[in-house]
Amino acid sequence: MPPEEPSTRDKLLDAFETLLVTEGSRSATLDNVAGAAGVSKGGLLYHFHSKDDLVDAMLSRMQEMGERDIAAMRTAPQGPVDYYLETSVDSGSAFDRALIAAARIAQENDERAGNALASLREQWFAVLSEHLGDEALARTIQLIGDGLYFDDTSGFTHPQALEHVRDVLARLDF
Amino acid sequence: MPPEEPSTRDKLLDAFETLLVTEGSRSATLDNVAGAAGVSKGGLLYHFHSKDDLVDAMLSRMQEMGERDIAAMRTAPQGPVDYYLETSVDSGSAFDRALIAAARIAQENDERAGNALASLREQWFAVLSEHLGDEALARTIQLIGDGLYFDDTSGFTHPQALEHVRDVLARLDF
DNA sequence: GTCTATAGACAGATAGAC
DNA sequence: GTCTATCTGTCTATAGAC
What we know:
The structure is a homodimer. By secondary structure, chain A is mainly α. Chain A has nine helices and no strands. Helices cover 75% and strands 0% of the residues of chain A. The model of chain A has no long low-confidence stretch (mean pLDDT 96). Chain A binds chain B through residues 22-27, 103-104, 106-109, 114, 117-118, 121, 135-137, 139-140, 142-151, 154-156, 158, 160-161, 163-165, 167-168, 171-172, and chain B through 22-27, 103-104, 106-109, 114, 117-118, 121, 135-137, 139-140, 142-151, 154-156, 158, 160-161, 163-165, 167-168, 171-172. The structure holds a DNA duplex.
């Protein structure tokens, strides 16, 4: 059977994330979100009683994807380090979009978003640290991942960045 | 003679930056900026005719500080690499605050801010690359700097991060 | 140079029709 | 489940007093 059309609820969450990522939090208004999802503001507010509600739902969806990502990282055939660095380059996946959207919300002084992201980061670090048995190296690799992510989401794109990082890490033989 | 009290104009720019950094772009309204600087909205609009004007002035001030920073990086006694990494940890300096504020503006799809930041980044990279004679290493160090900066400004603080990075870089003997 | 008052657009949210 | 109409507050910006 063909893939289902996403529910209106999911279309609204997608539109909210996309607006946050591409135009920033000031453009992610209820009006714009509803419009981008092809419904009216009243329609949006049937699914989410308030903007806070919309944020909560977005973060829940992100956390679910996060659990799956960390499980995938633990069992990745290329190993956790390469998996982590590869997925730090924005691939345009639904999870990437959710992470960037959550970061935008966190910047508006939102504790829920800040805590959700902090929790994910701790789990990524734990996997790197366990696998490498070297906290300093694990921290450095996470910083490189943060840098890749930051550059991508800020429009500072360097096509060879990942290649350069692999080159340098290869000199460290771990 | 004692240091001069900052002008109202500078107090307004400082307040704008601080609001952007601590509470995000949605809180950086003309009302809030004026209030934080201790003047009325009318007072603000005497100095800056529009919000766009305020952004332009903020970016100009940042670019001036950026030129001085790149000059300091070139002649730093500890060398450009260590200077760059140290100043990537948010020290709370006026320049750091301006950089973070500009990043917030850039995220709202503002080309001026995006271009100003991209230009600074290219100059930092050029100094690193010249000094090291190794593009891959220069890129990796810039990514680590971006990671340090991103973590600090997102509230993901790791007190030992800089120490860990130095530890790992020491293994690369360059 | 700084203020108050106000205009006009837009924000989040409610009520009720369909 | 989705719509329109509307309320209330806030946003940027203007006008004019002091």
